[in-house]
Amino acid sequence: MTALKIGILDGDDIGHEIVPASVTVAKAAAEKHGLAIDWQPLPIGRTALDTHGHTLPPSTLEALHKLDGWILGPIGHRAYPKGPNAINPHPILRKQFALFANVRPTRSYPDIGCLYDDIDLVIVRENNEGFQPDRNMLVGNAEFRPNDEVTLSMRVISRTGSRRVAKAAFELARHRKKHLTYVHKDTVFKLGCGMFVEECRKVALEYPDVRVDDVIVDTMAMRLVRDPQSFDVVVTTNMFGDILSDEAAGLVGGLGMAPGLCIGEGDIAMAQATHGSAPDIAGKGVANPYAMIESTRMLLDWLGHSRRKPEAVAAAASMSQAMTQALRDAKARTGDIKGKGNTASMTEAILRALG
Ligand code: ATP
């Protein structure tokens, strides 16, 4: 039996708390179902800058190429010192491994402060182009200032980028409720969003079994609050997806409840929660580990299907049940979701529920 090779990259700040929690839970689930995993801790972020002289050491990048996937903790790049070796690793990881689809689910659980008790949707955010100026250029940065009065920020939309993220979203929709909504603003961005919409429509022809509709992004911001139940899979461009997925997290208890998985056309995936490194609560042991543990669960489930390993799918299913059970325990839950516990008590409750 070949073991899955999974990297552990803590990231920064609360990453040092929630990534170890995720690995502990995943290890217990793997053991329960006889799933062999070769875990490989790799340096990244501020710690790597101190120990290896770079926030993304070449040895880490090289090691990632040999893995099936990895868990990436949140990166606190805004606090890095200025310097060529203190870069934000995100754009490089997502580009080098063509992880162009960021799959971000939003789900209600009872008693944790959700605004509705029946939300179950997934936002698929394009990950590698759009408005993000640090990742939409081969060389340079897509923001520039010709004089002190004027700043230009460019958005990149490509047919290939739009088509492939649409395809990833349609595949997901096909395995869920067969309903996909694409979100854009082609009324104003006639060329950019227009191209995204054209590609979504073309891909839709390959999925006649999936019901399709589209919503303008500002209307979407409102409808997400008023009737989130009317959506199942939503696909959109990078910045719109980033904003809407944080909004969606706000409906179900906040950023601690916002997991994510970055995927592409290849056979590698990266578990990455939607939230940042939360320096304000780092080191206090109070971070909600759900988003990171659920991201890790999504990785195991994805690897189980892509590598045809039913034991990985079973481990992921057990993690899901255990988290649902643990979230009912107000003494164990973290404070952000109406609990009296902390990172450790919530992790222990999940482990107990795993049996
Ligand atoms: P980024 O731009 O890197 O995504 P951000 O500016 O959105 O980061 P975060 O680091 O995500 O900021 O934190 C935003 C707020 O949410 C902070 O007050 C933080 O404490 C809270 N938060 C984020 N993640 C968690 C978590 N896992 N558990 C509890 N609170 C969290």
What features would you describe in this structure?
- The protein is an alpha/beta fold and 355 residues long.
- It folds into 2 domains: 190 residues, Isopropylmalate Dehydrogenase; 137 residues, Isopropylmalate Dehydrogenase.
- It contains 11 helices and 12 strands.
- It has a 10-stranded mixed beta sheet, with helices on both faces. Strands 6-7 form a two-stranded antiparallel ribbon.
- Helix 7 runs parallel beside helix 8 and helix 10 packs across helix 11.
- It starts with a strand and ends with a helix.
- The protein binds adenosine-5'-triphosphate.
- The site of adenosine-5'-triphosphate has 13 residues, from loops.
- Adenosine-5'-triphosphate binds next to loops.
What topology emerges from the helices and strands here?
Blueprint: E1 4-9, H1 15-32, E2 37-41, H2 45-52, H3 58-64, E3 69-72, H4 89-96, E4 101-107, E5 120-126, E6 143-147, E7 150-153, H5 159-174, E8 179-184, H6 192-204, E9 211-216, H7 217-226, E10 233-236, H8 238-251, E11 261-263, E12 269-271, H9 290-306, H10 310-326, H11 343-354
Parallel strand pairs: 1-2, 1-3, 3-12, 5-10, 8-9, 8-10
Antiparallel strand pairs: 4-5, 4-11, 6-7, 11-12
Helix pairs in contact: 1-9, 1-10, 1-11, 5-6, 7-8, 9-10, 10-11
Residues 14, 255-256, 275-278, 280-281, 287-288, 291, 336 line the site of adenosine-5'-triphosphate.
